[in-house]
Amino acid sequence: MTDASPDTAADTDAGTGERDHDCPYCDRVFARADYRDLHLGLEHENLTDAEQAAFADAREAEEEALTIFRYKALGLLVVAYFLFLMAYAASL
Ligand SMILES: [Zn+2]
Asked: To pair with 26 at 20 to 30 A between CA atoms, which of 40, 63, 84, 86?
């Protein structure tokens, strides 16, 4: 029995810095904590309450970011449509 902390976070401080977003159930490493939380909720079952809450928060943030992206994409399409319409009208 070792009294040191598990190898989840102790050996990652000195070298790479951002390596503390490992999945605790498989060996995948994520660049951001919310990516890991989304992976946990989608790929693994029997999560702890904290992991389920983190997944719900990450999913809500992801859906909000997707909604903003969709509005931006729609706005860009509308602008492109009117630019082509004006170019067509000017060419007549
Ligand atoms: Zn995993």
From this structure: 63
Q: Would 1 be classed as within a structural domain?
A: no
| Phi then psi dihedrals of residue 29, to 5 deg | -120, 135
Residue with tokens 């997944």: 55
Q: Which pLDDT does position 19 carry in this prediction?
A: 66
pTM above 0.85, yes or no: no
Write out the residue range of the structural domain in which residue 25 sits: 10-91
What separation in Å is there between the alpha carbon of 70 and the centre of ligand 1? 29
Number of domains composing the chain? 1
Position 56 confidence tier, pLDDT thresholds 50, 70, 90: very high
d(CA 56, ligand 1 centre) in Å: 16
